[in-house]
Amino acid sequence: MQQQILVTGGNSGIGLEMVRAFIHQGHEVMIAARDLGKSLGVIQSLKRETPNARLHAVALDLADFASIDNAAREILNTLTQLDTVMLNAGSFTRGLRSQANGLESMMGSMHFGHFRLMEHLLPQLKVATEARVVMTASVAHWTGRIDETAFTDYSRYGSDIVAYGSAKLANLIYARELARRVEGSAIRVNAFHPGGVATGIWREMPGPIQRIVDKVLITPAKGADTAIWLATSEAAKHHHGGYFTRRKADFSKPSSRNKALAASLWAASERIAGL
Asked: What is the mean pLDDT of residues 175-201?
């Protein structure tokens, strides 16, 4: 079945490999990323590989609610039968900092930005015959914690590593809570850990971490494999609310499965980033 697929952060790294695989499979794809010019350049390159590819691009800054709202309108006007959303965009910010809206930058974009985007997209996904949402999580979620005071007071995290892990923990909690909330519908929601992928994100990590992970990094194509499988394979259509590594169900931090914590985070997300 041909799908209409949105990939956030689809102009580089594992997001780009997702886009490449999807167009090879004949799906229609929209890249949503901050740098529209870069996305358009990527589309030109991909069309040289796959001339008949149906590709679109939209500017999306997940740190800016107005940008999210504008992008969502364009996404829904272009992909009128949107049925697959890859919540992939992410970054590691060396040093702690705030966004213009006052939110800690990694939690603000990776969690709250994606939450607001999905508020716009969910109505369309709910009327699709089959729909899938795939969240790019990370084993780094084990270093994180959900502390609502830290959403705006980043000093509470103490380090950029904890802040990144906290955003990834929020991603995983969100995916599981969304799965619970759409239970009984045609939407399937899952999260995955791509592995240590050789992308720019690791170049921002502290030196000691770089030296460790450089020995075990995998290619972006390998990192994207589980996401592509979750989004398009017949075998994965029965999975819902899972967390996967290398196409296998993986164990996650107990707090990522805490229903009370999930409800609390959802309520905070509605208050901060809801429509």
From this structure: 87
